[in-house]
Design brief:
globular; binds 5-O-phosphono-beta-D-ribofuranosylamine; alpha/beta; 7-stranded mixed β-sheet
Length: about 200
């Protein structure tokens, strides 16, 4: 049986979830897989610096330079195949993947979403907008969800969730920070290990 499965992390921005994954691999929380590759949809994502600091191979498939989604995804698939990737983790990745792509990697793509799905998710709910919606609705509790990715935005099977209290006078930014610290950065690494452990059993 293979020692570890090969993990790719797809990013677009600050990469705090990528950092949590890097730290979790170092601390042994993630032991059934190794982060072999970071793919960024933007060349100025700070996540690339985090990958460099951790000496992890990083590639950029610049979304805005691609003529359409098909060519963008073709570039990503080439990177994944070159590196024999078994599990794809979307960590602050701001692109919606096509049905073709999600079917090609069925049950091998996971994503962290900054709300308790099915609340505040789907088309148009990303980044700070999620927290704005939660505050506008007046919910007392929010949180984060890690789920498998399918063709429906934030629609795949839920793997793990963690609740976070909303405090009086929270702004979207303050709430986003708390949800990242108290939920995303905890359940994403744990979920990656859970899924990697299962995939490792299948890997010949
Ligand atoms: C996080 O709130 C994440 O849930 C969302 O994008 C934000 C930034 O993520 N998808 P990161 O710092 O780039 O990991």
């Amino acid at each position: 049986m293979a020692a570890k499965i090969n993990i790719a992390v797809l990013v677009s921005g600050g990469g705090t979830n990528l950092q949590a994954l890097i730290d979790a691999e170092k601390s042994g929380i993630i032991k059934s897989g190794a982060i072999r590759l970071v793919i960024s949809s933007s060349s100025d994502a700070y996540a690339l610096k985090r990958a460099e600091n951790a000496e992890i191979r990083a590639m950029v498939v610049e979304k805005k330079a691609c003529k359409d989604r098909a060519s963008f995804e073709k570039g990503i698939v080439e990177c994944l195949e070159e590196n024999h990737i078994d599990l794809i983790v979307l960590a602050g990745f701001m692109c919606i993947l096509s049905e073709n792509f999600t079917k090609k990697y069925a049950n091998r793509i996971i994503n962290v979403h900054p709300s308790l799905i099915p609340s505040f998710c789907g088309e148009g709910f990303y980044g700070l907008k999620v927290h704005e919606a939660a505050l506008n609705y007046g919910v007392k509790v929010t949180g984060a969800t890690v789920h498998f990715v399918n063709e429906i935005p934030d629609g795949g099977k839920i793997i793990m969730q963690k609740a976070v209290k909303i405090c009086k006078n929270d702004t979207p930014k303050v709430l986003q920070e708390r949800v990242m610290k108290q939920a995303e950065w905890i359940i994403l690494p744990k979920s990656v290990e859970l899924v990697a452990k299962e995939l490792l059993k299948e890997k010949k």
